[in-house]
Amino acid sequence: MSRLTLSDVTVSYAERVAVAPFSDTIEEGEWLGVIGPNGAGKSSLLRSIAGLIDHGGSISVEGVRLDGLSDRERAKRVAYVPQEPLIPDDMTVTDYVLLGRTPYIGYWSSESKRDREVVAETLDRLRLADFAPRLLGALSGGERQRVVLARALAQQAPILLLDEPTSALDIGHQQQALELVTELRCTQSLTVISALHDLTLAGTYTDRLVMLDDGVVAASGAAVDVLTAERLGEVYNVCVTVEVDPDDGAVIVVPRRGFPVRPSDD
Ligand SMILES: Nc1ncnc2c1ncn2[C@@H]1O[C@H](COP(=O)(O)OP(=O)(O)OP(=O)(O)O)[C@@H](O)[C@H]1O
Ligand SMILES: [Mg+2]
């Protein structure tokens, strides 16, 4: 069971409020996309759920508050792919993905056969099996990003937080990674919250979008209601057209040449 409840979650850095009180319930198996311009508070929100930064309000999974749990117990419930992961150059792909199994390995034990199997399966699913013995420092940016996703998936937590997980991936690997997350959420009821800058991808893969603007929810709901050209113009100061595929309802956001919609401040 993995319903995630956020109640009046706030994040502040010194004087600056990065996330104003934010409340939402993300149902088991649901995929929530968090969108918004640079600095809107997306990573701050995800990092607060991951327990990496102080926050106000409460965050709980099936009624159990995450901030009352040890790191180990939290990691069994929530896996997190950071926007800018720190990656040790001299570690092999296998050893790095094995770190995802840490919450299941006893303090004085080493990994089990099962842990190694999960790592091998995960690498296989992300078509990274051939990379297993390679050093992280010798991978391309996109390959590294897929390895970081593999580490999070090997954690087998029911809640997955993805902060720009596909920013360095080519269009094929983007689709492959997001399809894999889709598959896992269907087969294992994975609850997913992702920040994605690509609005078309965000609208395509998620069930629901929340658009943040300067820490505040500017819109939330189905992609077709949130991703309007007018709102994107206001919030992102961008000129786009939005098309809705008549067959499958996919919302496609196309940047256009043109002047920003928002009037200048002066
Ligand atoms: N460690 C920090 N100390 C102080 N301010 C911070 C810190 N991290 C983020 N901020 C500020 O908080 C606000 C929200 O940042 P956050 O990283 O959550 O935005 P974001 O929506 O993820 O942006 P991006 O699209 O660029 O990744 C920004 O104004 C940012 O400058
Ligand atoms: Mg961010």
Mean pLDDT: 93
Percent of residues in beta strands: 25-35%
- Indicate the CATH class: Alpha Beta
CATH architecture: 3-Layer(aba) Sandwich
Bound molecules: adenosine-5'-triphosphate, magnesium ion
Low-confidence stretches: none
Query: What name is given to the CATH topology?
Result: Rossmann fold
Number of beta-strand segments? 12
Distance between the termini: 52 Å
Q: How many helical stretches?
A: 9
Principal-axis shape equals globular
From the alpha-carbon coordinates, what is the Rg to the nearest angstrom?
A: 19 Å
Written account of the structure:
The structure is a single chain. The protein is an alpha/beta fold. It is 32% helix and 26% strand. The strands form three sheets. Strands 6-7-8-3-9-10 form a six-stranded mixed beta sheet, sandwiched between helices. It has a four-stranded antiparallel beta sheet with strand order 2-1-4-5, covered by helices on one side. β7, α6 (171-188) and β8 (191-195) form a beta-alpha-beta unit. It is globular. The chain binds adenosine-5'-triphosphate (ATP) and magnesium ion. Adenosine-5'-triphosphate (ATP) binds next to β2 and α1.
